[in-house]
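Ops channel
N.P.: pipeline sanity check, posting one input/output pair.
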């Protein structure tokens, strides 16, 4: 069993930056793919970014490509999402997730989920 806790959300103006962190506990996640998803009110939870267990592979939604960067520090059992050039449409609750697979990008492949952290981007 893996517990995930996100932090780093908040209010930022359009064009600004935030860095989200996801701290894992209960098990090492060094063999797990990790991902970030987001959900705006009234919308489906959607894929944002994922990273392979080693950190060697990454994948991004087209909507964030070039603006967001996912990274991980397996020694710290932590995953990050650096968000730059934020837009109002990035406003959502952001969730960290872990997959038992070594790489995954689809929601159903992620087995463990954090509680979410709110990101609000003002225009």
């Amino acid at each position: 069993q893996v517990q995930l806790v996100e932090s780093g959300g908040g209010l930022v103006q359009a064009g600004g930056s935030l860095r989200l962190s996801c701290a894992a506990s209960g098990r090492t996640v060094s063999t797990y793919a990790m991902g970030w998803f987001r959900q705006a009110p009234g919308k489906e939870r959607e894929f944002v970014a994922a990273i392979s267990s080693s950190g060697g592979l990454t994948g991004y939604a087209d909507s964030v490509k070039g603006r967001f960067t996912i990274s991980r520090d397996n020694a710290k059992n932590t995953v990050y999402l650096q968000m730059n050039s934020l837009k109002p449409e990035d406003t959502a609750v952001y969730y960290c997730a872990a997959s038992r697979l070594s790489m995954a990008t689809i929601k159903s492949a992620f087995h463990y989920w954090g509680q979410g952290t709110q990101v609000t981007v003002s225009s």
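N.P.: looks fine end to end. The chain has a mean pLDDT of 97.
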